[in-house]
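Dear support,

I submitted the protein below through the web form. The confirmation email said the job was done, but the results page showed an empty box. After a refresh the structure appeared. I'm attaching both so you can tell me whether what I see now is the final result or a partial one.
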Amino acid sequence: MRIFHDERQRRHAPALELHNGGFTAYAETPARAEAMLAVLGATETPPDRGDAAVRAVHDANYLDFLQRAPELWRAAGRPGEAIPYAFPVVGRRPLDLKRIDALMGRYSFDATTPITADAYSSSYWSAQSALAATQAVLGGERVAFALCRPPGHHAGADYCGGYCHINAAAVTTQALVDAGRSRVAVLDIDYNHGNGTQDIFLTRGDVFYASVHADPATDYPFFWGHADEVGEGEGRDTTLNLPLPHGTAMDAFRRAQATALDAIARFAPDALVVSFGADTWIGDPISQFALETPDYALLARDIAGCAWPTAIVMEGGYAVDALGHNVASFLSGF
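What the results page shows now:
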């Protein structure tokens, strides 16, 4: 299997995040990528295909903001990394805002996702890794893996959050559509719902989004990922959310994934994008599921058995010592 990663993806390294009412050490560290690389071995460096594919799913003003935010933060005399504190929960509209505090709230939905001087670059190269995996699949590979870090599935068209700035899975999906794959499915099996991916494709009839995740009634991102969210307009019935309770182990998770795969099969996609998170592992420090390392190979085998050309995009997983082995187990199933 071809695996893609660029060392620049490891430069984004915030010190702190605001979590549960206080500042704590940032969980989405470069050590995550190092742990995966230590187990997976050699990877291919993706070429720079430019930002057209990124701009195909993200708002131009938002991307400009991501690149300018650290400078604006410093110019305002602020220490540390840029973190928002005020959000337009109603009446969200395009305003000509100048102050960095206002821009941070306009283009973010949480305070756990600092914007560092390397946030855009690392996320850009994460997307380039995903595009390289996409091209490998388009070129005839049955499956390819993008070792994305930072993750991306919480980032919407014009907002960041959940450690995510650029949505690599959405970039991959749109790139497949633009390459002539008329129907593309996304299977999101990260512990947390991929609200950004869902939002980007919510009204699209050519993209099916299915997610198996922790019930948002109890877990982040709380406001999205409920079972009654099924898509809107032309995209109605092309969104499937399968929320699960704390303590979910392999049998229940595998049944939910089978439900998702059955729904995707009825959609009859030309290609599949898998947003894979290993934060469903029993020892993950910020999650509450109970999957074991060997379980990932079985889940992957179920996906591989559907025989769709598949691009896998890495999302979460924060038990650094086990992360590489969990990812290796998943990839072995293909």
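Response: this is the final, complete result; the empty box was a page-load delay. The first strand starts at residue 2 and ends at 4.
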